[in-house]
Amino acid sequence: MWKLTLVSLLLIYGIAKYFGSTGQPELPVLPSDQYWGPGQAREVDKSIRPFKIDIPKQVIDDLKTRLSRTRSLTKPLEGAAWTYGVNTGYLQTVLEYWREKYNWTERQALLNKYPQFKTNIQGLDIHFYHVKPTVPKDRPVRVLPLLLLHGWPGSVVEFQKAIPLLSTPRPDQDFVFELVVPSLPGYGFSDSAVRPGLGSAQVAVLMTNLMNRLGFEKFYTQGGDWGSLITTNIGILRPTNVLGAHLNLCSSRTVSSTFWSILGSYIPSLIVSDEHWSKMYPLSYHWSRLVEEMGYLHIQSTKPDTVGVALSDSPAGLAAYILEKFSTWTNPEYRFSEDGKLLEKFTIDELLDNLMLYWVTNSITTSMRLYSESFNSAQQSLKLDSANLRVPTGCAIFPHEISYQPESLLRLRYSDLVQVNHMPRGGHFAIFEEPQLLADDVWSFVGLVEKKKKTKQTATSTEL
Ligand SMILES: *[C@@H]1O[C@H](CO)[C@@H](O)[C@H](O)[C@H]1NC(C)=O
């Protein structure tokens, strides 16, 4: 019997070794100057123009009129809470607040607190915050550029609380961050492409160009959701530009990770500790949960323009569609509460600010197209999903994130994983929900990378 076991183990080991090889596929070469704007490709205006959010009164009046004309919402099923999607009983109270109490004049002033700009990259006007740190005269610190990228259905609103936490020097660190926080193309105040093809790989090129335009040849990156995918792509496609990538959604979706995940359902100890076992097993439970939550992804990856018509015409529809995500993705248990515990981690004003960035710019349709452009055969043929990220990487794993993978699998994808932390609380919208935890993790990650660099430099100079 032990012989059979031994042979099986060897066989498994061999297959695993084969699938676990971390060879880099041949990387695609993406042009830096692909033109996404209207008309023929042409030289763009490279100026960097100051920008302030200033929405005409008619847009706000129109919004309030639409809210006042919302048809009566279909009553939720008894006891269904948010398990059939948004709970319309609770949504009603949100819509009333939006119409009667939400003060855009005040909120807009808050969103204009940090300096914003627009500049044209590859034919598209890109909107971004550019926040320089205040460096104390008596204690000079190094200023490191950090690109912060949001995802869907988020926006630059998510970063408002983290901005001061990252741009104010800390007594225990000899560096501080200079922040660039853009709206992704097709999101908020950034232009959207006029022709197909601007997927997450091409967005990575565009964002690198933005940083270069601002004079940053080398920079740190941070992101969750699409922000994590795009920063990963930047590190793969433009590795010499990246000092380090901090992600709050790390994922290794290679053939070998899938193989190990399945093997791990028989012998979990191969890949995951007892403590974290229930975050990924039983597979049947977690996969069916994913199917339950990923309907939106299928729609947006295939027919974004159809659902976009409804969402861009009805603020109630937009609120339903987006707020459902802010409930369930913050904590899956929240869907069993009547109020979706929407205000457990966010204020109603913060949630509405984020909605406003989609509403006033009418960008929900173009935001959803990022899925169609990224989950198609043209994009998949670039094989970036199976490419290794070789720049220094930090993974912050939040307990209520939509999916979980143990460090052992993440290491198959991220070859220079400098830091992996299991966070004490928080979900998908980490920087919005837990700005302090996320910011602390970024400080600690960059501290490690900088220290490693210094050690290397010292070693080299001693050799000389
Ligand atoms: C909204 O806020 C502004 C600025 O604080 C204030 O002047 C205005 O009266 C407020 N509007 C309403 C309807 O409360």
Automatic annotation (TrEMBL):
The organism's place on the tree of life at top rank: Eukaryota
GO terms, molecular function: cis-stilbene-oxide hydrolase activity
Matches recorded under InterPro entries: AB_hydrolase_fold, Epox_hydrolase-like, Epoxide_hydro_N, Epoxide_hydrolase
Protein EC: 3.3.2.9
Active site (record annotation): D225 (nucleophile), Y371 (proton donor), H428 (proton acceptor)
Compartment(s) of residence: Endoplasmic reticulum membrane; Microsome membrane
Coiled-coil annotated spans: none
Record-level GO BP terms: epoxide metabolic process
Keyword Signal: yes
UniProt membrane topology term: Single-pass membrane protein
Secretion signal span: 1-16
Task of the protein: Catalyzes juvenile hormone hydrolysis.
Similarity comment: Belongs to the peptidase S33 family.
Protein name listed in UniProt: Epoxide hydrolase
The species this protein was found in: Neodiprion lecontei (Redheaded pine sawfly)
Gene (UniProt): LOC107227165
